[in-house]
Amino acid sequence: MENGWVFAVNAGSNTISVLKALPYGLYLTDTVDSGGVLPISVTANDDTVYVLNAGDANHANNITGFHLNRSGKLAKIENSTQPLSDKAVGPAQVAFSPNGRILVVTEKGTNKLDSYVVNRFGQATNHKVTNSAGTTPFGFSFDGNTRIVVSEAFGGAVNGSAASSYKVSENGDLTVASASVATHQTAACWVAVTPNGKFAYTGNPTSDSLTGYAVAENGQISLLNSDGKTGSTVAGSAPEDMVVSRDGRFLYTLDVKAGKISGFQIAPNGQLTAIGDFGGLPLGSVGLTGR
């Protein structure tokens, strides 16, 4: 979500949709071709939108950019479609830095990270490829403009997942701050960072748990709990995507196999306290955002 606009990828139809968040619900304003095949992730900064197309056996993966006008219509940015490190890399997520100057993509299949510098026309330029500190980099979140925390699923190895942190330069260089700090949980997927940048959390769907990390001023991360379990959801619920409220007081997880959202209060020391869950979602729902 960006400035009251919601963006959704439609993987089955190779399109992306724009919806306006209104007091009484969502209103569809546009649906356009994604610029590729199998769009799986989307990110926005002000009026610039980028989608990550995962591709298939006959189509390469890419990122493609769009401009959003005041009416909620998208127009493709000329020369914005850019490749990833190779043709079939198993990409997972694309996201802007908060200032909109850097784009990052994770590649699960190659254990690499792509970074791009976004110019004043909204075009992704200066493509760089960095080796991931750990195996199967998946979700990530920016901690301010100069750092990211990346989850590492390690191929789904039991209790084998981790998270790494990186420093991000103005020209898109990624430098490891902390390499593969273990979650002691299974299949870490998406990452959420608090607005003050002090804490990061991974959702571990196979373990039905959340792992919390403290983020130091130098970007290094350390476990909040020695066993890696800072929060738990109902057995078999598979918490994947997450969002932190804008005031940094609450964390919400999308429990894809239970059709619900679980809520947690974030203490000043980063610890989580469950505050209840909210059901009624279709099983297999994917993606969570907040405002």
Any overview of this molecule?
With 291 residues, the protein is mainly beta. The chain is 0% helix and 52% strand. It has no helices and 25 strands. The strands form 6 sheets. Strands 4, 5, 6, 7 and 8 form a 5-stranded antiparallel beta sheet that branches. The chain is globular.
- Morphology call: globular
Q: Which structural class fits the helix and strand makeup?
A: mainly beta
Average per-residue pLDDT, rounded, comes to 94
Could you estimate the helical fraction of the residues in percent? under 10%
Sheet-strand content, in percent, reads over 45%
Low confidence ranges:
none
Largest sheet: 5 strands, antiparallel
Work out the number of β strands.
25
Give a quick set of tags describing it.
single chain, 291 residues, mainly beta, 5-stranded antiparallel sheet
In a few lines, what is going on in this structure?
The protein is mainly β. The protein has strands at residues 5-10, 15-22, 25-33, 39-45, 48-53, 62-68, 74-76, 82-83, 91-96, 102-107, 112-118, 124-131, 137-142, 147-152, 162-168, 174-182, 191-193, 199-204, 209-215, 221-223, 231-232, 239-244, 250-255, 260-266, 272-278.
Write the layout of secondary structure elements.
Layout lengths: L4 E6 L4 E8 L2 E9 L5 E7 L2 E6 L8 E7 L5 E3 L5 E2 L7 E6 L5 E6 L4 E7 L5 E8 L5 E6 L4 E6 L9 E7 L5 E9 L8 E3 L5 E6 L4 E7 L5 E3 L7 E2 L6 E6 L5 E6 L4 E7 L5 E7 L13
